[in-house]
Design goal:
The protein has one domain (29-204): de novo design (two linked rop proteins) (Up-down Bundle), CATH 1.20.1440.20. It contains eight helices and no strands. It has helices spanning 4-10, 27-88, 92-105, 111-132, 136-139, 142-177, 181-188, 201-204. The termini are far apart.
């Protein structure tokens, strides 16, 4: 019975003069080297692809953390407005500015658009808290004080989430521009992301009011 190896030997694949043979002037060794290089390239490509996917997923998760904190912030603002309205109801301009800024901030947009809207909202909140300075009864209200503390806690969590997101974006953006990651970026669905930036140090500050 003719075996498979015997047949392959007859056609020169495993014979002394075959590609994998020892007597083909080193052709067998060269072919093994070529196959090894190809296998290494495939493994490297898989690792790079998985790394790009991981970086993209990390950015998505980091943005979700920001979105959660923004939603908490947006949900708290109506309570703050209602608490202030009871003391400064005739200051409609300031209260309406906060409500309008909140509505704009809740509209979906890019990271830069969201940051700009949140900056504007922070500005109106600072005006609202500055207004509260003129009303001792409001400053002494436990409800108002509790809401302010809740907002400060949210702002701190938001800043932590923003720093993590920007660090993740920086790593992703660097990777997709470097060789050989850039060759696989499209296939992995990895693309440069926008940073979530606060444009001004004054806007970055947590809105606060002195409780003296």
């Amino acid at each position: 019975m003719v075996t498979l190896v015997g047949v392959l030997g007859q056609v020169g694949l495993f014979g002394q003069a075959g590609l994998f043979g020892q007597g083909a002037g080193g052709n067998g060794t060269l072919l093994w080297i070529v196959l090894g290089v190809i296998a290494a390239a495939v493994v490297a490509g898989i690792l790079l692809y998985n790394q790009l996917v991981t970086l993209s997923v990390r950015c998505d998760n980091a943005w979700s953390d920001i979105d959660i904190q923004l939603k908490r912030r947006h949900d708290l603002i109506p309570n703050i407005v209602e608490a202030v309205k009871g003391y400064v109801g005739y200051e409609k301009g300031t209260l309406e500015a906060v409500v309008n800024a909140r509505a704009k901030a809740m509209s979906p947009g890019s990271a830069q658009e969201t940051a700009a809207a949140e900056n504007a909202l922070t500005g109106t909140l600072k005006s609202l808290f500055a207004l509260a300075e003129s009303y001792p009864q409001l400053r002494g209200s436990e409800q108002f004080t509790g809401l302010q503390q809740s907002l400060s806690s949210i702002e701190e969590a938001l800043q932590a989430a923003r720093r993590y997101y920007n660090a993740s974006v920086r790593e992703l953006n660097t990777s997709v521009r470097l060789f050989p990651w850039n060759l696989l970026a499209g296939a992995a669905g990895a693309r440069p992301r926008e940073f979530f930036e606060i444009s001004d140090a004054a806007e970055r500050a947590v809105p606060s009011v002195k409780m003296s």
